[in-house]
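Hi all, a correction to my earlier message: I attached the wrong file for Dipeptidyl aminopeptidase/acylaminoacyl peptidase. Here's the right sequence:
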Amino acid sequence: MKRIAVALGLMLASTTTLTAVAAPPPPATSAAAPLIERAKFFGNPSRTQGKLSPDGKWLSWIAPRDGVLNVWVAPASDPTQAKALTAEKARPIRQHFWSPDSKMVLFINDKGGDENFVLYGVTVATGVQRTLTPQEKTRVDIVGTSHRIKDRILVGLNNRDPKWFDVYSLDLAKGALTLVFKNEGYAGFTADEDLKLRLAGKSRPDGGTDFFRVVDNKVESQPLGDVGLDDSLTTNPMGYTADGKTLYWIDSRGRDTAALIAQDAATGATKVVGQSAKADVGDVLADPKTGVVQAYSVDYLRTEWTALDPKIGAELDFLKAQLKGDIHVTSRTEDDSAWIVVVDPVTAPAATYRFDRKAHTLTKLFVNRPELEGADLAAMHPVEIKARDGLTLVSYLTLPAGADGKGDSHPDQPLPLVLFVHGGPWARDSYGYSGYHQWLANRGYAVLSVNYRGSTGFGKNFITAGNLQWGRKMHDDLIDAVDWAVSQGITTKDKVAIMGGSYGGYATLAGVTFTPDTFACGVDIVGPSNLETLLKTIPPYWEAGKQQFYKRMGDPTTEDGRTLLRNASPLYKAAAIKKPLLIGQGANDPRVNQAESDQIVTAMKGKNIPVTYILFPDEGHGFARPENSIAFNAAAEQFLGACLGGRAEPFGTAFKGSSITVPDGAKFTPGLEAALAAK
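and the right structure:
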């Protein structure tokens, strides 16, 4: 099923001279667990993303080849006969999928984080790789695939107009592209099993979306339905059943939380298939042949599945009984005889299994990070925190292994805490293994992640409560969570750091500027500092979502909106910074341009306020290359250790293979200058 979705998310005074602080003694509880090398958290996984080909004959996964993540393939009957199918030398492959005819593995990749994703295909029998979308400065979007039509797929390309994706039929064997629909302003499309466009979404000036039927590649003049701003992030079509008679929606119209809705394509009649009063329906399991939804999930504190098909319910019950942890069905053969199942125990690395439905047997295929097996990993605790205005903030707390001697989710004594803020902001934190939570907990910190207002998954009212609240009530929620942690004895007010990427990076900058006495230090990864310049430089292919940004952040085309954005921009409060700050940025970031970090670094230097600024010339919005993640986090743990007193692994060879540069402030992070000199 292919959803229409508007992509919103960035996953989007004093002149006192400060010096690097000396590291306080580490927390007493941090010695309970051996130090785990950061490369085990942030290096390449041994294997990940296992998938079965539709015909069930092949098994694919992503694994390192000469240190770079590539696609590997093996006969499903004998995974030991694996071979590398791709040979990427620089940029890791992070997504792959099978062609409908099982003859080809498809994957997308960009250059240096520029997000101009190109589609590639590799024929399994010959190993020949073809660039299927070779256009320059173009981004590909997968519009539709089919179990019925196996020799082609539908793709969207924005090479004609960078704002809009024209729809093409792609002949997989020949690599030929045939124009299906010239797009003059539609946000997205839904196709059926015949690869016919059936639905088009068009953004409205109020931030909502109108949906139109498409007949013979022509859009009807009157909308089939309309979605207002409040419902725009919680209402989207999921796709059609194979017979084309039913259209599934995730839909919050007329309600708060988004329900799973089945709509009769002919009459327009709808019925509720699945719902929850606490959280949105998030994902579904659908029959590979018919497209009929068999189960749906809801993620409040943790993900819970509800089966609509008794047979699927029995299978899910069997998997839960056999596997200890949260279960994810990630791949199904076309005849549905075999599944790929991933289990996430949180306190152990995720494992991937093949589930043979006929024999009712589970075969363990691989563990994604076997180097973490037997390690002292920490439990994650879902908690509900009340904001000052009564909103409930679903949050996740991780404590160092051995710190919770009483087993009551509270440390035996207060610990330094890292408030780790998710990006988006229209995204969410969920229960599950987190490399950042585990790494920071192993260093002796309590780690808290908060679903502040504006986060998705908890109904449209929770999202709407975050409108125009960047740096305001959204930030208040983070402060309320810190106060909660202090009141619970988890930490003390002087031992809290803030860290995050994208919006989480913005929250870090907001934390050290708007509330300069709350946090002991901050780590900002690709965070915007100036919301006006951020909105001026969003990628052109986000045109369909631009009005939503304006309505939810502030409208830069009006004076009131510009005032709102300026008041919420940490750049203009940079003089208030009095605590240590570490910034990480990718030079090719198309979402949060390098200028966002450059601006605040320049402002701080102008006021003689120290800052460590790390820049990666081959990265974009976040760090895809593990060598760069390891390098940045090596600096981050030294920085946090000096600030909060946690443990830190020596730099050692952390910069090996990394493109790390430090344009400013290496001297303000302990050991960084020496490590750079050694590199």
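Sorry for the mix-up. Confidence is low (pLDDT under 50) at residues 2-30.
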